[in-house]
Amino acid sequence: MSEVATVRRSSRITPEREAELYRAVLELLREVGYDALTMDAVAARTRSSKATLYRQWGGKAELVVRAMRSEKPGGIADIDTGSLRGDLHAIIGREDDCVIEENAALMRALAMAVQLNDDLRQAFKDLLVEPEVEEFGRVIQRAIDRGEVRPDNPALNYMVHMLVGAFATRTLIDDLPPTQEFLLSYIDAVVLPALGVPAD
Fold first, then answer.
1. pTM for this structure?
2. Residues 6 or more apart from 86 whose CB is under 8 A from it?
3. E strands of the chain, at which residues?
4. CB-CB contact of 171 with 147 (8 Å)
């Protein structure tokens, strides 16, 4: 794992100020996209100095990904409803349709940049993808421990791919935003059957 994920710089920025900075970064990201977003623009929007931004976040990639991470409604590893279906439904239910659509738009704004920018791809992997995959793995492990899912089920290797795929391709294929209703029905129709778990 790279240094970006293991070292957090010391700072005198208050949590409130940090949240304000993150909101501004996400606003700019939605307005202009990743490539056109600059540290100068962030500094101007937030009345900060570039030196402070670089000292705290190192660069644009880490700042953007930490801003995205700040929008997450908390970890999923502690969600335990007693069943895998209940856990997956609870995870989806944490965000309403408006937030889900905003997150999908942000992901579309970053999709090409992640492929073309090594710093962004590494920050995205270290700060967003790997922590969520690790937490999701704990949810799945509980389902295995409860006997709901066989540990040798080959679909286990593709759980995250299935869920991210549904989220990412809804607009591309159907020209519709992902919604709670769509994602919950996808879990019941696709994910749970693949794992041999009843959807009722």
1. 0.80
2. none
3. none
4. no
| CA-angle at 178, arms to 112 and 134, nearest 5° | 70
Calculate the average pLDDT of the chain.
88
CB 113 within 8 A of CB 120: yes
Residues 6+ apart with CB under 8 A from 129: none
**What is the residue whose two structure tokens read 């006997």?**
147
Distance in angstroms (rounded) separating the CA atoms of residues 82 and 163:
20
- pLDDT single digits (tens) 30-83: 888 889 999 999 999 999 999 999 999 999 999 999 998 887 766 787 889 999
Helices (H), 118-179: 118-124, 130-145, 159-174
Q: Give the residue carrying structure tokens 């623009």.
A: 41
DSSP state of 81: -
Asked if 68 contacts 26 with a C-beta cutoff of 8 angstroms, the reply is: yes
Question: Which run of H or E residues covers position 170?
Answer: helix 159-174
Answer yes or no: are the C-beta atoms of 96 and 180 closer than 8 Å: yes
Q: Are 127 and 111 in contact (CB under 8 A)?
A: no
Q: Tell me 75's DSSP state.
A: -
66 is written with which tokens? 């930490």
* Nearest CA-CA partner of 84 in 30, 146, 31: 146
pLDDT in tens, 143-187: 999 999 999 999 999 998 998 888 888 888 998 889 999 999 999
